[in-house]
Specification:
This protein is mainly alpha-helical and 361 residues long. The chain is built from 13 helices and 5 strands. The protein has helices spanning 5-54, 62-67, 69-113, 121-127, 133-147, 154-168, 176-219, 236-239, 243-248, 294-299, 303-310, 312-320, 346-360, and strands spanning 225-231, 252-253, 269-274, 329-332, 340-343. The strands form 2 sheets. Strands 2-1-3 form a 3-stranded antiparallel beta sheet. Strand 4 and strand 5 (340-343) form a beta hairpin. Helix 1 packs antiparallel against helix 3, helix 3 (69-113) packs parallel to helix 7 and helix 6 packs antiparallel against helix 7.
């Protein structure tokens, strides 16, 4: 049941490959959103200019705005543009999820074989076992359904917020240009709110597809596996690993447990861990387990990085012994999506610390 240097090498390579898929989709969506705003902004500027003129020194009423042809055209254009971007989000995410799922299911054999005696029957079977293309199709279908779910109406929600922003208006003042610039800036912020939601959805669903395929790939080899290990990247400068992930890293979970159900956009992975060589019938010495020790790595970080990861108050509670590492994660429920582990708020950690002090008194 030793995760070897070769296991970690394969896991890191896999992490980089999946990260590249996520980053490529992210960059593509960001570029599309920027181009789209550049296409609609002139109509928005023209509409705001017309509204400033008809208001006679005041911002027009909702009724006036809804009857102004230029404003109607601008909102229609924004709606159509966001519909197109929502469709692009779906197609790009499905493509990324397909690639990530394929990588996940293909890599499990190598990850498992790297922990077994070289040349053994179990290692060969793990490395060259039959893959499950139907499983990938099922994962991709689920991803597409999730994107189309009712709680992700990207275009409708963003268009509605922009209309509300337009109706609310600005304080016109003496300089219409200043008022118009402020309004355009506010509307751009609402427009890009759709991008924020799209990126959250896309990244999370691609990473979930990868983890689900890993789960299926590991089930194929359950006879040699002891479970899976929560595995996160413990390099704060690159990954910005959160306190919850630091605390959960290295924990062992049964194969039947989905996950890791990381926080949204989290890149933690599930690394398979084999049973001990003795349990598998090998009468030879087993190498040491090399899964990195999260606490040791954190303790070795400079003070500034520890504070950046934990926050000063959370770090004080941890160092004082008033809270434990196990207190850092908190399971959260998101309606119509999946549960996820995130960082427990400081106020809740302080409450835990108070309760322990009271029990000890």
């Amino acid at each position: 049941m030793a995760i070897t240097a070769e296991t970690l090498r394969i896991a890191e390579q896999l992490r980089r490959q999946v990260g590249s898929i996520v980053d490529n989709v992210t960059n593509s969506l960001v570029s599309a959103w920027v181009r789209a705003w550049d296409e609609v902004v002139w109509e928005v500027v023209a509409a705001i200019g017309e509204l400033l003129q008809i208001g006679d020194g005041k911002w027009p009423s909702r009724r006036q705005i809804e009857r102004t042809a230029r404003a109607v055209r601008a909102l229609d254009l924004i709606g159509a543009t966001l519909e197109r971007l929502a469709a692009l989000t779906r197609s790009q995410t499905v493509t990324g999820a397909t690639e990530a799922a394929r990588l996940g299911i293909q890599a499990q054999g190598d990850l498992i074989a790297s922990q077994l005696p070289y040349g053994s029957t179990q290692a060969l079977r793990a490395r060259y076992g039959v893959q499950q293309p139907d499983a990938i199709d099922a994962i991709v279908r689920r991803t597409a359904e999730q994107i189309n779910a009712r709680h992700w109406p990207l275009a409708d929600a963003a268009t509605r917020r922009m209309k509300q922003e337009l109706v609310r208006g600005v304080v016109v003042g003496d300089n219409p240009r200043t008022a118009a610039a402020r309004m355009v800036k506010n509307l751009e912020g609402e427009f890009n709110g759709g991008l924020t939601r799209a990126l959250n959805l896309s990244r999370t669903e691609i990473l979930d597809a990868h983890r689900q395929s890993a789960e299926i790939g590991q089930e194929t080899h359950e006879d040699v596996l002891d479970g899976w290990v929560w595995h996160c990247e413990l390099n704060s400068s690159r990954s910005r690993t959160c306190p919850s992930c630091f605390a959960l890293h290295g924990t062992l979970h049964p194969l039947s447990e989905p996950g890791p159900i990381d926080h949204q956009q989290g890149r933690c992975s599930r690394t398979p861990r084999t049973k001990s060589w003795a349990d598998l019938g090998f009468d030879i010495e087993e190498p040491d387990d090399l899964i990195p020790d999260a606490r040791a790595i954190f303790d070795a970080l400079p003070e500034a990085e520890q504070v950046a990861i934990m926050g000063r108050r959370r770090l004080e509670l941890l160092r004082s012994g008033e809270i434990e590492w196990e207190d850092l994660p908190e399971l959260r429920t998101t309606p119509d999506w999946r549960d996820s582990w995130g960082v427990r708020p400081v106020k809740d950690l302080e409450r835990i610390a108070r309760q322990r002090r009271q029990r000890a008194a």
